[in-house]
Design brief:
Structural class: alpha+beta
Shape: elongated
Oligomer: single chain
Largest sheet: 5 strands, mixed
Distance between the termini: 18 Å
Number of domains: 3
Number of strands: 11
Strand order of the largest sheet: 6-8-9-11-10
Helix content: 55-70%
CATH architecture of the largest domain: 2-Layer Sandwich
Number of helices: 10
CATH class of the largest domain: Alpha Beta
Amino acid sequence: MKQANSLYVRTSLTIFVALFIFMIFASVVVFQYLVQPIAKQASGDLSALMVLSSRTWVELLPDARSRFEQELKNYHDILITLEKPKLPRLSHKTPFTKFLKQALEKRLKQPIKFYEDISEDMIWIEINISENFIYVGISAHPVGANPPRVIFLLLLGAAILIFFTSSFLVRRLTQPLEKLSQAVIQMGRDTTVPVLQETGALELVMLTRSFNQMNFRVQQLLDNRNTLLAGISHDLRTPISRIYLALELMNGQGEDELIDGIRNDLIEIELLISQTLELAISKEKALEKIELVDINELVSLEVEKYQNKYNLIEWHSGSEVKHPISRTAFQRIFQNLIENAIRYGEGKAIKITLTFVNEEIKVCIIDQGPGIPEQYQSDVFQPFFRLETSRNSSTGGSGLGLAIVSQLCELYGWTIELKSNPAKKGCTFCLTLNQSI
């Protein structure tokens, strides 16, 4: 089902409405300047024939009237009688009967009454000729024309034809753009985009070709980046491993405080390398098998891990809440958020909530730290950004934790939201698990 604001729907609707308005205008013009004049001419001719026939019939002898009546019926489908029909007055007036009434009243200078015989599909007209009321019967459809029905059928046929024609033409024009739009969205999500077929109009072919070239170059840059980071991490971990080995050999032979300091620095460097690689990982490697997981149980397990070393976590396990997710990705996001809350929470209680409203699952982690100024709330999800600019490990992390959270949320179609008011203290990070990836 196409979205109402898509290019296909909007273009099709624009063409359809424009052509349909033109068809209405054309129908009005045809009715006003073609159908209506013809109907007036036909009603004038018929009124003249009816008046002439009525006057002739009155002047004929009774014996000749029957033959005259037969000729009128055979040649003109007109009946004449002196007997007033016991019929209701004509209620539904068509344009033709309206024009016929006007023509008769103009000729005879008298009001004309119409009666309808539904069973015989006839109309009887009361005419005063020579002080005699004569009743003339004609077919309810004397000329076999029904302008309103004709116009309606024309509009209906034109609407159907315009709809399918415009849909077909617009589809041919917008399909390449739709594929290109989807490819751009995929590229924005760091997904490998296949080469698009270069078909259609010349402008679309050139646009698709340029996109394919850009896509190829972007993929090359991403591959080169990952290769470079992998190489650097390998080259850095080798001397780090040797330093670890040297520290173990020095154990007990040097200053313990100095050795512990070096060991902590190495752990920090290794953590920084791991987080940098995790941030640079492609979506194909990040996306794992999606499985149906009880979110409530998973949060309880993660909270239990941290309560052993930080017992100020408020969490109340609730009922089962199942949702298809990547377990590893959710754990990584949750761990980064709770570690961030512990690091900046100033040793105060951390509250964790899980809500399930309107088929939307939301996990919130609330701390009571100093909060984040509004102008920096979007920057904290950028790599290596820290409010404390000294880069001292004792006053903050590496600046990659929230960046990893933001990237994983983008990869899996989840939403991460930050609410913070430094005046009231504290930060609230809410992770929303959408229905689809």
